[in-house]
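Input record (Table S2, row 338):
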Amino acid sequence: MKAAQFETPGGPEVLSYKEVRDPEAGPSEVVLRVSLCGVNRIDVWARSGRYKTSLPHIPGTDISGEVVSSGPGVKGTMPGDRVLVYPVLSDGSCVYCRQGRLNLCLSRGFVGVATDGGYAELVKVPAANLIPMGDLDPETAACLPVNFGTAWNGLVGKAGVSRGDTVLVWGAAGGLGHAAVQVAKHLGATVIAVVGDERKSGFVKSLGADSVVVKSVDLAEKVRALTAGLGVSVVFDHVGGDTWSTSLDCLAKGGRMVSLGLTSGAKSEVDVRRVYQDELKLMGVYGQSREDLRAVMELAVSGRLKPAVYRNLPLSSAREAHEIVESREVQGKVLLSP
Ligand SMILES: [Zn+2]
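Output record (zinc ion complex):
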């Protein structure tokens, strides 16, 4: 089969499109013919070496496809079944798995990092990770797990956003940010979207954002001006060390911050007095549950969540896809088609 693979970690140029051996399904595994694979930061981190992988390695975590073959012990799955891959790998037996918190599993991994992923014509995944695609189209499906599933986990599962909340979304034009804007609007919240560049304003407004602010040193003042001096009730922060302190400055008393990852440094100085005196809640979010994914799939089928596809590139252009995601020019999702 053809795949986009790297032999040593590095920049986008280490991805090469080549002929590799077809995967074979082992016990409890299936082989899928990949329809589309979403491109995410997690793929970039696998490629760059920030996340450890075996070598050579095929990245790709967000996979829609069709079942080709099943290994021993797989029941209830037929060749031709259209499926979406739930990307969290877990042992099913540790203390967290027994609580149903697979994304906290002691031996947690992700498809496309712990295993070869979807930048390929064929991919091998555990049968337990398949979710029937139903009426969802494969392009929309491949946009959902990492971005929409995680946004749902943060805004619904952790922050409990509802009508009356005002949600500040950092990096609102990117894959995760554009999902968060849509999920927050679906929940009835008012959304203030932060963009790095004025030219992205039109895009985030088209997603439903009520106000757009361009990232600047006086961001917290701008946000307070938009909220009668109070601040927002929820911040959706996936930037990390560079933004945490500003995120807290933007929060109203009793506000909640969800932290879903980082694209900047991992360290930040936090004014602890604000956290306790104003009863702020800081919540970490890592990945998504199967239920989170099912919820966004259902809303995508009915058109209430609509991933915006910025580029759908051939698999041979995996390098270009990574360059686009890393350049921050992206507005919505980048996909690869084998
Ligand atoms: Zn476990």
